[in-house]
Amino acid sequence: MIPTLVIGFGNPLMGDDGVGAVVVAELDQIGAPPGLRLSTLADVLYLSSAWRGEARVWMVDAVLRGAVPGAVHRFGHEEVLGIPQRHATVHHLSLAEGLRWIVHGCPAMAGVRFRLWGVEPESVEPVEALSPVVARAAGTVAREIADVFRDSCRQCRPRSDDNRAESQMSTRPEILE
Fold first, then answer.
1. Which domain, by its residues, includes 154?
2. Which of 69, 50, 75 minimizes the C-alpha distance to 138?
3. C-alpha distances in angstroms, 6 versus 24, 61, 103, 161, 166?
4. Which pLDDT band, with edges at 50, 70 and 90, does 113 fall under?
5. Residue 167 to residues 35, 155, 157, 159, 163, Cα–Cα distance (Å)
6. Complete DSSP assignment for 119-161
7. 38-58 pLDDT, tens digit each
8. Which of these, 57, 153, 157, 177, is most buried using a 10 Å CB contact count?
9. CB contact burial 122-146 (16+ within 10 A = b; e otherwise)
10. With contact defined as beta carbons under 8 Å apart, do 95 and 61 qualify?
11. pLDDT of amino acid 164
12. What's the rounded Cα separation, in Å, for the pair 38 and 19?
């Protein structure tokens, strides 16, 4: 099992911007698998305070890409870190720029593998609920994250054939001439 931190970003008081927090709540409700730690944060700059040495950090956030509301965008490690900063102020860092600064400022996080599930919002306005289409996407993302984590755990386990082969191996040291 690879310890993994799942972070839901966003502001639950701003409609669909709170999708990250809803996904984390749904993962908690369905029962996050062991090894999957859940957290919510309002801003990426708090990531290093939530991190406890996990090898992977998976994130969920509202992401504007011009797709239909509720569309789920999936970004691997290199894609997340490669997202350009669209404005020239340090007071409003993008998720990707914040990650780059965190990795630079916290060398222990340099080996962390990031992944992002971005959900296209329908509305980002002062309201304490997701739009119906984004709420459905949140449930889909929560189940997908749990499934991806379980699948990655299965890939890490030795197969039963490997165990049999190991048990049939001699415990005596091999003598090389």
1. 4-168
2. 69
3. 7, 11, 17, 33, 35
4. very high
5. 28, 20, 16, 13, 6
6. E--S--SSBSS--HHHHHHHHHHHHHHHHHHHHHHHHHSPPHH
7. 999 988 989 999 999 999 999
8. 57
9. bebeeeeebbebbbebbeebbeebb
10. yes
11. 36
12. 14
73 found inside a domain: yes
CATH classification at residue 70: 3.40.50.1450
At 57, the amino acid letter reads V
CB–CB of 102/46 below 8 Å?
no
Asked whether residue 176 is assigned to any structural domain, the reply reads no
- Is residue 21 in some structural domain? yes
- Domain total in the chain: 1
Strand order in the sheet with 113-119: 36-41, 4-9, 56-62, 113-119, 72-75
pTM confidence score: 0.84
Indicate whether 174 belongs to any domain: no
